[in-house]
Q: What sequence folds into this?
């Protein structure tokens, strides 16, 4: 491998810049050239490609977002788009590529690897919904941002003795909701993977909270369940307790990455370049049992992931421990 390309794809995530920085600097340390591909696979197809050196990644490790910009690209899902992408890589001398993104981005990485471009993918998403890894770049920052926001809602919720439904991101996965639910001491945690859509139980729980003198009732609701505004209206009607919905939204995707996101993203970026230097391709990097691992992309995409049942059980015990 002589020239490494790097791109970010799909939803941005805090820590992507740390990963880009690590890719660029590790490649340079190995005597390689580096090209940044802007705006994900869309930018690849439009040849939005820039030369990068060690100073191109100065002063970015602490920044949220991605200096390479990102996009979701439909054209790259087609065989023609993928063929064109591989040809553009070859034209620019890119013989090793690091793709930072989620599951969707891994599909594109696998296609490019099959078309002869050595490719390694890094898990970059706030949702933590990638089966082959216990850690994804951005989750730690997002969950801390959401946790702080929920603490703030809790203050005003208590003052007004209200019920608050707070909706967090995660697409179809409930990791952000579960972690925040525990970290914020929510009375109810609704996660996509376990929610039975039985609102009567929530209403009972609220009435019980009231009866034992609780001043607020915090419900953390996962985006995959949604309908927080509708839920608020129905709960208010059924309980008589003033209820408000707060959808935290994209604030969870931004901001300065936490130390964990900076360090793990740096380690993963370096590891991706090490794999390419060893001639590896079609790999995705993960974090398991305290260390980095890598898998065949196809194998990784076929893995299944579910919420940790013990953690879920703990969340239930702690949120309802005041009930007899
Ligand atoms: O995958 C990250 C994520 O923020 C999800 O949690 C959310 O469902 C989605 O992206 C939102 O995407 P967009 O920014 O395109 O609205």
A:
């Amino acid at each position: 491998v002589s020239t490494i390309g790097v791109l970010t794809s799909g939803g941005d995530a805090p820590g992507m810049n740390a990963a880009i920085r690590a890719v660029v600097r590790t490649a340079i340390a190995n005597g390689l050239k580096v090209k940044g591909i802007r705006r994900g696979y869309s930018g690849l197809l439009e040849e939005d490609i820039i030369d990068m050196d060690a100073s191109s990644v100065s002063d970015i490790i602490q920044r949220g977002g991605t200096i390479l910009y990102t996009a979701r690209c439909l054209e790259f899902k087609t065989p023609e788009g993928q063929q064109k992408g591989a040809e553009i890589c070859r034209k620019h001398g890119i013989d090793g590529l690091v793709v930072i993104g989620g599951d969707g981005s891994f599909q594109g990485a696998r296609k490019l690897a099959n078309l002869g471009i050595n490719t390694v993918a890094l898990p970059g998403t706030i949702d933590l919904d990638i089966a082959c890894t216990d850690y994804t770049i951005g989750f730690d920052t997002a969950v801390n941002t959401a946790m702080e926001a929920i603490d703030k809602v809790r203050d005003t919720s208590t003052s007004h003795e209200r019920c608050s439904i707070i909706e967090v991101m995660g697409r179809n996965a409930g990791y952000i909701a579960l972690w925040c639910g525990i970290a914020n001491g929510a009375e109810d945690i609704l996660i996509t993977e376990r929610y039975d859509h039985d609102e009567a139980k929530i209403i009972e729980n609220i009435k019980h909270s009231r009866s034992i003198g609780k001043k607020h009732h915090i419900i953390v609701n996962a985006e995959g369940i949604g309908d927080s505004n509708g839920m608020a209206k129905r709960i208010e009607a059924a309980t008589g307790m003033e209820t408000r919905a707060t959808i935290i939204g994209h604030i969870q995707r931004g901001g300065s990455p936490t130390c964990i996101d900076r360090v793990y993203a740096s380690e993963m970026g370096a590891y991706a370049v090490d794999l390419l230097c060893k001639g590896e391709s079609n790999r995705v990097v993960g974090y398991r049992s305290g260390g980095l691992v890598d898998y065949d992309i196809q194998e990784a995409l076929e893995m299944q992931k579910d919420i940790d049942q013990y953690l879920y059980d703990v969340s239930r015990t702690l949120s309802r421990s005041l009930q007899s």
